[in-house]
């Protein structure tokens, strides 16, 4: 439909367009190039031709990354026929359309300029005409024919242009009614091919659209299907280097570039662009599509309705992209996402296929995950001694290359201090030192020494029947995604645990530690290279949002967050079908019993609260037995906390005992992460246990007492990952437990719990070795019987 407006060499004689003068317009002089441009600017990207559009747009080029889409001011939303119509192709999908209108209205009310290119007039008209045909049947004829014959009465084939004429007004009335609910006015514009040929009409259309946008009105645009000729063969793909208006995809692309829009959203009935036809076994959704990539794509058939297929959408998208408009093709029909697909795209979330002219130097995160899986499988196949050798090598590199590591860390610290974006506790976490690196190296050597029989260890053997033996053996989980904040020392720790357990690893560190993470990852890959498994550990450096990473359920098997409680909660909320190992809060308690030792109480409380108050295993709530109030022991506790400058918050019961009390807590379920704590009073060890269960986070809880019976009651009844007697909460740590390091502390009740070392990164599989065994032999009249005998386990490696 755009073909004749672009070049005198290309004319489409069959089109006849009628459009009222007050709504007709011109799609920019960009589409009426000079004679020199006509002859010289025709180019081809692979097998999809297009015409080069001069980049004279005021707002510059298209967005390079999804994260920039939130800055889009002017947006065109193209609704394909499959999105607007019902599955029977007769009538509109009203619920889906209402959801789209709601999202467009939300963005419009945010101050954006929204335009809609819609299909649906033919389907709506078909519904109306079918209804009219049935009603026009003579009642007498219907009665004479009989009810059964009436049901089978044939409906004549309806001509599409007549359907469009009958449906256009109803479609627009529906849009107006829906937008009115959000106090937004909509205006209809019907365009024809002549509107893009005639310079005056093009100017009129351009002016009309700009005036509507200025008045905060949403233009709803469609081709005037009531007067269009039957569809023609796709001459665009037969050597003609132009884009033509023969479907709403090309219409949307032309309007988007003409109106200098920032973003074109093309909604269809598929998730986006696939590298092969959707539904085929090997089809993979392409997250980002770059000009030139179409050679690697095989196009399938078009959607169930509409004029264009995916090939037409890609052609239109590339053409709009060249004109400076960013494009996303996504699914507008899926019931789980259609209610927020448009707003998700504008927020920069990973939805559909994003078209970008900027191709990153490195692999995509999907490619990195696939590399990590392949590398992890090779890693798991190595001998235990080889995996241990890699970890020992990494430990050596941490000390040998400490000057380079500390120099990179210094850059991170300076940038963080200059920007002032990190609190003091987080700056402490970000900082590396020679002693920290030495401790890291010691921990890594512990992991290497303890990992000799971690993968492939037989944990159960059963003789099912004669010559039929079953084994349960440990295997890696698969691909781990570890997300961590302000903790560069986490990278070598987690890498060593993944290597020891044979897992592939994706690491996503905070940008505040970018320089430190980069060199530590480089050293990790250098260590992996000694046995050719460099790709097993990947550092995600792309601008992927954490929420997008959490959606890669086909590529990632387990997510382990290391950071603030807010980060953990966000990841747990965002994870789509991927288990999350971790804890959202570290609300740790210390209960001081009546039989507590005076010497032990202040030492344990001071260490639990003051040694590292930002840690997740630091004391947050101090429970004191009521009988200890107004005793010398209680006074010593308060004096110590004041000396350490710990701000005290009073629990409700504690406050009731005091004439002048500290500030009463707003909640007993607070993780302060600083030199602050809550003090509350309980009447017994049973009440202490109940308080912990009600307000705790199942992380780490401590009792201080000399009464063994009371201590054992506490140890057995507190349902937390770590429960201690007369020891600091700070012992809840993989290194202090002798695990070498930890990937985190889990408070979940499935799989691993507490500090998670190598064992927590393993699962099992079953190996059955038989000799021509079949189940039918074990039937009532079969020749074999089940034995189910337990067999001895092989001796573990003594080293």
TrEMBL record:
Role description: Bifunctional enzyme that converts glutamate to glutamate 5-semialdehyde, an intermediate in the biosynthesis of proline, ornithine and arginine.
EC numbers, comma separated: 2.7.2.11, 1.2.1.41
InterPro entries registered for this protein in UniProt: AceGlu_kinase-like_sf (IPR036393), Ald_DH/histidinol_DH (IPR016161), Ald_DH_C (IPR016163), Ald_DH_N (IPR016162), Aldehyde_DH_dom (IPR015590), Asp/Glu/Uridylate_kinase (IPR001048), G-glutamylP_reductase_CS (IPR020593), G5K_ProBA (IPR041744)
BP-aspect Gene Ontology terms: citrulline biosynthetic process; glutamate metabolic process; L-proline biosynthetic process; ornithine biosynthetic process
GO CC aspect terms: mitochondrial matrix
UniProt domain Aspartate/glutamate/uridylate kinase: residue ranges: 73-331
Species of origin: Serinus canaria
Main localization of the protein described in the UniProt heading: mitochondrion
Keyword Ribosomal protein attributed: no
PROSITE patterns: GLUTAMATE_5_KINASE (PS00902), PROA (PS01223)
Entry protein name: Delta-1-pyrroline-5-carboxylate synthase
Pathway(s) the chain acts in: Amino-acid biosynthesis; L-proline biosynthesis; L-glutamate 5-semialdehyde from L-glutamate: step 1/2; Amino-acid biosynthesis; L-proline biosynthesis; L-glutamate 5-semialdehyde from L-glutamate: step 2/2
Aldehyde dehydrogenase domain residues: 364-629
